[in-house]
Amino acid sequence: MTFVLETRNLTKRFGGIIATDDVSFKLPAGARHALIGPNGAGKTTFVNQLTGVLNPTSGQILFEGQDITNWTVRRRATAGIARTFQINQLFAELTPLESVILAINERENAAHEWFSPLGSRETIVDEACALLDRLTIGDVRDARVGDLPYGKQRLLEIALALAAKPKLLLLDEPAAGVPESEREQILDVVARLPAHVALVLIEHDMHLVFRFAKTISVLVNGALFCEGTAEEIARDPRVRQVYLGEEEVQHG
Amino acid sequence: MLTILFDGVAYGMLLFVLGIGLCVTLGLMNFINLAHGAFAMAGGYLTIVLMNRYGISYYWGLPAAFVFSAALGAILERTLYVHLYNKSHLDQTLFSIGLVFMSMAIVDYFMGANQQTINLPPALDGRINVLGASVGIFRIFTIVICGLLTIALQFIIAKTRFGSRLRAAVDDGRVARGLGINVTTIFALTFAFGSGLAGLGGALSIGIISIDPTFPLKYMIYFLIVISVGGTTTITGPFYASLLLGVADVAGKYYVPEIGGFIIYTIMVAVLILRPQGLFTKGATR
Amino acid sequence: MSGSHDKDLQSASARLLKQSHSRWYEWLFWAVALSLFVIFGDFIPGVPTRLMLLTEIVTLALLALSIDLVLGFAGIVTLGQGAYFGLGAYVAALLAKGGAGTFPMSDPVIGLLIAGLVTGVFGFVTSFLVLRGSDLTRLMVTLGVALILSELANQMRWLTGGADGLNGVMPSAVLGIWEFDLWGRVAYLYSLAVLFICFWLSRRIVNSPFGLSLKAIKNNPLRARAIGVPVNARLVAIYTIAAALAGIAGALLAQTTQSASPDMIAFHRSADGLLILVFGGAGYLYGGLIGAAAFRVMQDVIGNITLQYWQFWLGAVLVALVIFVRNGIIGMMVAGWARLRKGDGQ
C-alpha cells in the first residue's frame, strides 16, 4: 500500500530542546486523521517540518513515496501539500476572490503572466467563485479581506489551501477562536471536504476531533505517544491520563 | 603610522560616542532615527555659539552641549517621535530624513553654510610626542573623554538597576512589559541620554572633524555602518565597530585617498549580506 | 445562491477586468500633460517657456514610478533607486558622446534601450542583495549600493569626467526625424511619450496575475510561499524591471539636458525619488507622477526665495506627511472623494 505521507525517524532539536522526537508516521490516501496532544507537545513544529518552513535535524519526509526532506516550501506546495494556519495568515488588502485566484494561478502556472489583465481567464475566475460559494463566503468575495469577520477569515484560510487542489491538507486548529455562532459553518465545511484529500487535523477541541477523525495520533513531548482508531484512542486509559485527564481537570 | 593609528582611534571613539544613542534606541524600540546626527550638530553649534558669542570656555561648552542636546532629544521624543513607534520603518525613515532636512536648513539659516572654527583652549592645542609619534593633544583629550564615557556607560548598563531593565527591554520588549518594566519611560530616558551623548560628541567633533550644516547627512552613513557591523544588542559591538571604522577611514584616506569611501561602503554591504540575520535578529524576527 | 450563479460569475470576471480599464480622469491627466506643452512651449506670447522644467518633471516622475513598482506594489523599501537612474544617465551620455551624432550610437531611442538594458542587468545582479533581511537591512543595502556607485562615478575620471561630469552630449534626432531644439519642445514630447509607454507597461504589470502575486507578497510573504508563490523569483523580476525603468529615466534626463554629472547619481536622487513617491502616494502608479509635479514646482517657487527655505519646508512637509496623512496627495483625494460620496448618500 502506498502512503500519501510518511515520516521516518523525524527529529528536530532547538539547542538542547527536542521539539520532535524520532517520529515515524504513515498516512494513507484519503485519510481523516487527527494529531492531538497537550499544549507544547510539538504539533505545530511537526507541521512546519512537513510544509518545509523548518528543516528537521535528522530523519526523512516522504510524499507519495518521494523523499521531499530537502524540498522548498514552494515545491512542496506545488506538489500538493497545503495547510491552513492556526493564526490567520491572509492577504489583508486583497479581496477573497483575488486571494483565491492568486492561488489557482500558481497552481495553473499562470501567475507569471504580466501582460494580460487579471480576470481575462474566465475558467480561473469561475473556479474561484465556485470555491468561495462552496465555502459559503461567495457573498463577500469582493470585500477587503482585512475587514471580514473572523469566522469568514477562517473559512478563507481553508479556501486558499483548497485552491491548490492538494492531495494532503493540514488543518491547524481550523475553528480556533471562532465565536460559537459561526462555528457550525466551519465544521460543516470541514465535513464536506473532498474525500480523496488526505486530511490531518491538528486540534485541541476533542468534540471536533471525534466528529471527523477516523484515526488519531497522540503527540507528547515531541514523541508519538500512541496511535489508533478514534475508538481505540477514546478508550485508551493512558491517553485519558496525559491528555483527556488534563481536559477534565480544566473543565471540572 | 602610529600617528594614523592614534588619529583613527580618536576618530573611532568619537564616532562611538556620536552613534551609541542610535544603536541603543534602534535595539530597544526597533526605531530607526536617521536624524540622530542632528542632535550631534545641535551640541556642536551650541558650543560654538557659547564660545564665540559669549566667550564661555570650551570646558563648559562640553557639558552644556550634553544638556542642550539631551533636552532637545527629550522634547522631540515626547512631542514628535512618540507618534512614530507603531509605524513602519519606511515612515520612520522618511520622518527622520525630514527632521534632518529641517535641522540643516535651520542651522544654515542662522549660522551660514561655512565650516565653523573655534579657538581651542591653549592646553588642548598643539602636538606632543607619544612613543615616537607626533600626536595632537586634542586627540588624546578626545580619547580620554570618550574612553571614560564608554567605561561609565558599560558600568551603567552592567551594574545599575536602570541598566538591567534596559537590557531586559532590549532583549524582549514584550516580556519586559509583562514583568512590569515601563519600557516607554526607559526609552524616553535612553533617547534623551543618547541625544545628549551625541551632542557632547558634536562638541568634541569641532576639534577633529569640521562641523557644518551638512553634518547630519554626512555622518548618517557612518552611524549606519557602525550599526550594521556592530549590531544593536550590545554596546561592545558598536564600540569595536566604531574603532574599526575610525582607523579604517583615517588610514584609507591617508594611503588610498581615491578609493577610501568605496572600501567602507563595500564592507558595509558585504557585512549586511553575509550576516543580516545575525546583525538584525530583532528586526528580522518582527 | 445557485439561481443567480451564472449572472454572478459573469459579473465577477467582468468586474475584475474593469479594474484594468482606464478611467476618464486618467485620460484627463494625460490630456493636461499634453496641453502644458502648448501653454509653456513658447507658442503663446507673454507666457514664459518652461519646457525644460516640465521635461525634468517627466524624468523624475518616471524615477518615482519605478520606485512605486518595488515599494508600492512589492513592498521593498529602497533608498538606492538613484543608483540605477544615474547609471542610465551615464550610459546614455557616453553612447551619445561616443557616437558623435551618428547612427546608431547617438540615436536617442537606441540609447534609451541600451541604458535600460544595462541598468536592468545591474538591477538583476543587485536584486539578490535585497531578497533577505528586514526593511532596515534592505534600506541600508540599497543605500550602500547607491553610495558605491556614486563613489565610482566620481573616481573613474577617465570615463565619467569625475566631478565635472560629461558635457556636450549630443544625441541625434529622435527616430531620425525630430532634432532636439533650443526651446526643448522635442525634448518634452519625447520624454512624455517615453513616460507614457513606461507607464502603460507598468499599468499592465500591476493589473496582471504577476502584479497580483506581488501585492500578495507585500501583504504576507509567509502565506504567499505556502500557496506556492515563488517569492524570490517574483521580487527579482520586479526589481529588475524597476531598475531598467529608473535607468531609462536617467537616460532621458541625460539626453534632454545634454549632460551627465555626479549629481544625477548622488544620494539625494534616491531620497528625492522616494519623497516624490510618498508625497504623491505610493501604490497608485499616478502618485509618482503627481508627486513629481508638485515637488518640482514647490522647489521652484520656494527655492527661488532661498535654498534653505526649500530644504526646511521639504523637511516639514515630510514630517507632517508621515504623522498626519496616509498615502500622500492621492490618498487624500481618495479619502475626500469617499467622504463626499458618503455625504451624498445621506
Keywords:
heterotrimer; A: 252 residues; alpha/beta; Rossmann fold; 6-stranded mixed β-sheet; C: 346 residues; mainly alpha; 15 helices; 2 strands; globular
Account of the protein in words:
The complex is a heterotrimer of chains A (252), B (286) and C (346). Helices cover 38% and strands 25% of the residues of chain A. Chain A has helices at 43-51, 73-79, 96-107, 122-134, 150-163, 180-191, 206-212, 230-235, 237-251, and strands spanning 3-14, 17-28, 32-36, 58-63, 66-67, 81-83, 168-172, 198-202, 215-220, 223-229. The model of chain A is unreliable at 248-252 (pLDDT under 50). Chain A is an alpha/beta fold. Chain A has a domain at 3-90 and 164-251: Rossmann fold. In chain B, helix 1 runs antiparallel to helix 8, helix 1 (2-29) packs across helix 10 and helix 2 crosses helix 9. Chain B has one domain (14-219). Chain B has a two-stranded antiparallel ribbon. Chain B is globular, with a radius of gyration of 19 Å. Chain B has helices spanning 2-29, 36-54, 58-79, 89-111, 137-159, 161-171, 173-178, 183-208, 215-230, 236-255, 260-274, 276-279, 281-285; strands at 127-130, 133-136. With 286 residues, chain B is mainly α. In chain B, strand 1 and strand 2 form a beta hairpin. Chain B is built from 13 helices and two strands. Helices cover 76% and strands 3% of the residues of chain B. Chain C has helices at residues 5-19, 24-40, 51-73, 81-99, 108-127, 135-155, 157-160, 185-206, 209-219, 221-226, 231-257, 267-280, 286-305, 307-324, 328-345, and strands spanning 166-167, 259-260. In chain C, 74% of the residues lie in helices and 1% in strands. Chain C has one domain (50-345): Orthogonal Bundle (ABC transporter involved in vitamin B12 uptake, BtuC), CATH 1.10.3470. A two-stranded antiparallel sheet of chain C has the order 1-2. In chain C, helix 2 (24-40) packs antiparallel against helix 8 (185-206). Chain C is an all-alpha fold. Chains in contact: A-C, B-C. Chain A binds chain C through residues 51, 73-74, 77-78, 82-83, 85, 89-94, 97-99, 101-103, 105-107, 110-120, 122, 125-126, 128-129, 133, 138-139, 141-142, 160-161, 163-164, and chain C through 1-2, 5, 8-9, 12-17, 19-20, 204-205, 207-213, 215-216, 219-220, 222-231, 234, 237.
